[in-house]
Amino acid sequence: MKLTINLRDLIGIIKDKASQSKAAVIRKPKTFSLHLALLRATTHDPFTPPNSKHITTVLSYGHSSRATAASAIEALMDRLQSTHDSSVAVKCLIIVHHIIKHGSFILQDQLSVYPSTGGRNYLKLSSFRDNTTPLTWELSSWVRWYARYLEHLLSTSRVLGFFLCSTSGTAEKDKEEEKVSALTNSDLLKEIDSLSNLIEEISKRPDSLHLKDNGLVDQIISLVDEDYLSSINETAARVDEFDQRLSCLSFGDSVELGCVLKRLEACKDKVLAISTRKKALVESLWCLISEMKEKVGNGKQAYREEGRLLLTMGRNESARFTDRVLSYGNSVKFSSARFGLNNGFALSIVESV
Questions:
Q1: ω before 206 within 30° of 0 (cis)?
Q2: 347 - beta bridge partners?
Q3: Bridge partner list, 333
Q4: In this structure, are residues 251 and 300 in contact, taking their beta carbons and an 8 Å threshold?
Q5: Cross-strand pairs, 346
Q6: Whole-angstrom Cα distance, residue 8 to residue 244?
Q7: Taking the C-alpha atoms of 83, 89, 95 and 97 in order, what is their torsion angle to the nearest 10 degrees?
Q8: Which of 114, 111, 112, 145 is nearest to 128 (CA)?
Q9: By CB neighbour count within 10 A (0-12 exposed, 13-18 middle, 19+ buried), where does 107 fall?
Q10: What is the pTM of this model?
Q11: What is the pLDDT of residues 183-206, one digit of tens each?
Q12: H or E stretch covering 332
């Protein structure tokens, strides 16, 4: 087994050297350094995460023109979607994550619009499989999950109007409380629903029983944990805002909010088990969600009771109306099955005194 791993590592090193040599020959001078940094950051080594120096080089292409940033994103996506190696795929996804968190606005913008069609399976890795070894097979499940997670992160960022977890979005985050309070109920529901989708995806993280002390997996976990805390903060702000508006919510909004809170509560145990950072902050959110879920449930019950009361009142009023009509039956008779009166159109003449 040791020989197999060493042989695979040797093949990976040869592939990396060949790719770098090829880039030196066929790439234009302007893009050579980009492709070389990208190749060096996404080697075939299944244990070591991308070197921060090479990631920084890739990110530096977002501080130039929009065309240069577009070229950087295109090169990264070509590398990601053409590889069949799980190590290379994971490292490409880590770079995507770094762009979301630390990239310039131009680079983030180019990432958000690639491809132009958008849609589901944005990174096109739902069927990724690398069955070369048991290690790469297990790492493949991380590739599929990590790609789905990043798709949710990009989607949630679009809904929120800023890149969640981005260090460059500090100015937007400072205005977040004011922005949240100005949202309509519909938009607020859309945002909290998107955040709950993201937290649900975090709870689906694969087990790493056979990937202990793997640098690649450790870096993914570290990056996602940071995002998790940001998503917790954003979710808490919106749940708290709904708490302020509870008496003004329609029945439909209450039902929708209740469903979102129920979904969040369903993934609580799993999320708490995979992340132990800032437990007090996290626990306070789950307490808030539990309290809100109970309040929303009570509100829906009040709506039902009010609806039954109005229905009963309507029936009583209808009965009283019928009685009043019937009380005049001796004077004026209409042919109407609705009131259960005699057939025929007749008027009885009231005797005058």
A1: no
A2: 332
A3: 346
A4: yes
A5: 333
A6: 59
A7: 130
A8: 145
A9: buried
A10: 0.77
A11: 999 999 999 999 999 999 999 999
A12: strand 332-333
